[in-house]
Amino acid sequence: MAPRILSQEIAREFYLLRIDDEKVKYFEALWGIPEKVTYNAYLLVGDDVVLFDCWKDVYADDLVEAVKEVVDPQDITHIIVHHIEPDHSGSLPKVLEVNRFRAEVVAHVMAKPMIEAFYRISPKFRIVKDGEELVLAGERIRILHTPWLHWPETMMSYLSSRRILVSCDAFGGYSIPRAVFDDEEDVVQGYLPSVRKYVATIIGFYRQHIIRNIEKIQSLGLSINMIAPAHGLIWKKNPQLIIDYYRDLANGVPDDNKILVVSGSMYGLMEVAARAAVEEVEKLGGRVVFYRFNDSEQPPFSEIIGDAIDSRAIILAAPTYEAGIYPPLDQLVDLISRKIPPKPMLIIGSYGWAGVAAKKISEKLEGSGFKVIEVIEFRGSADEKDVQRIRESTRKLLESS
After folding, report:
1. CATH number for the domain including 78?
2. What pLDDT, in 10s, does the model give residues 294-303?
3. pLDDT one-digit tens code per residue, 52-84
4. Does 1 score more than 80 pLDDT?
5. Does one domain contain both 191 and 306?
């Protein structure tokens, strides 16, 4: 089935070129995204023709055809590359080839050697500084360096007269929204969980840079009528909503009483103990999101990390395995400690002959700034006293968060 492609004028002589990637299963070959993703490029047409970013390399021919819906690709005079990650630059060589390398590639100073190394091409480059203004296609385009959103060479473009911020990865999300704009409330509310998951998995490690760069943009006093990201919805009705949502996620602002519980259980004993914590959370009015690793379920890390970033608190339950942590939980702990703002934690461990898992989980998380409220460890299965301790510690966790 051919991919769905949109070539649509979204402002005066400013066009969205969007392709819906229904083939991808794992973003960055890591993160499971059953909801899929879009790649958004943009064209500004006037005396000059400016292409803002490209698509993934497997869609290079499709991008050329999408451009042809608006202009002759040979008429492109400038290609502004905001970010070199190949989901945005992979089709650049094909576009330049069809363009006969007439276009000037406008990019960060770090981008030039990266493009040359990734694609073994040497187009005409124009290196732009932070705050530099380009007058192209009758528009004054202001370049904003926004490092670590989410690579060091990442930039944005602000179209002054149209008041449009072309933001690349920032303010984007996974999924294929059924609309182009944020006009409908149900579309927005259905989309935001995919934004949360995107921020947690892709930009979570750089979350302090989200905050810094939002502060930078706001300090410039830009009037923004539209945010045009490289993935997902375009924000025209309420661009401030996505800015605030990104900031809240970066700060780890909780979604009310949402408590994340994750258990790993080879033979079901730890899952029984984890359910005692789940029951106590629900009894106290919390909203539980419960993931189980067992012999019939292996939930995607992308979903768990997405739910972790705006949880009020987290409960992890894992047995000792080969003198260490049960492997899926071990990997999850490493991801949480890297990508998620610190949260209050309750750690539950079990063992057969020597207890290790709970202590090691606690050490890893405390080393990353997480507040471990309690560490509970028992041998074999949880007895009545262990269950009571789990319930009491769960209450303490909720009181502290």
Report:
1. 3.60.15.10
2. 999 999 999 9
3. 999 999 999 999 999 999 999 999 999 999 999
4. no
5. no
Query: How far is C-alpha 395 from the chain's CA centre?
Result: 32
CB crowding 246-255: b at 16 or more within 10 Å, else e: bbbbbebebe
Nearest C-alpha neighbor of 54 from the set 175, 179, 168: 168
One domain, residues 237 and 265: no
* pLDDT tens digits, one per residue of 196-205: 999 999 999 9
* Pair 15, 37 in one domain: yes
Same domain, 226 and 342: no
**Residue 255 covered by a domain:** no
367 within a domain of the structure (yes/no) = yes
**How many domains in the chain?**
2
Domain final residue, candidates 250, 276, 306: 250
How far apart (Å, rounded) are the C-alpha atoms in residues 27 and 34?
A: 10
* Type of residue numbered 280: E
* Range of the structural domain that residue 57 is part of: 5-250
The pLDDT, as a whole number, for residue 218 is 95
State how far the alpha carbon of 68 is from the alpha carbons of 58, 65, 76, 230, 246, in Å: 18, 5, 11, 20, 34
Question: Closest by alpha carbon to 134, among 80, 95, 89?
Answer: 80
- CB of 282 closer than 8 Å to CB of 258: no
Is residue 68 helix, strand or coil?
A: helix
Burial 364-393 (b: 16+ CB within 10 A, else e): bbeeeebebbbbbbbeeebeeebbebbbeb
Q: Is the peptide bond before 150 cis (omega within 30 degrees of 0)?
A: yes
pLDDT given at position 2: 78
Q: Is the pLDDT assigned to residue 330 strictly greater than 90?
A: yes
Per-residue model confidence (pLDDT) at position 3: 87
Burial tier of 160 (Cβ tally within 10 Å: 0-12, 13-18, 19+): middle
Q: How far apart, in whole angstroms, are the C-alpha atoms of residue 264 and residue 272?
A: 11
Q: Are residues 19 and 165 in the same domain?
A: yes
Amino acid (1-letter code) at residue 352: G
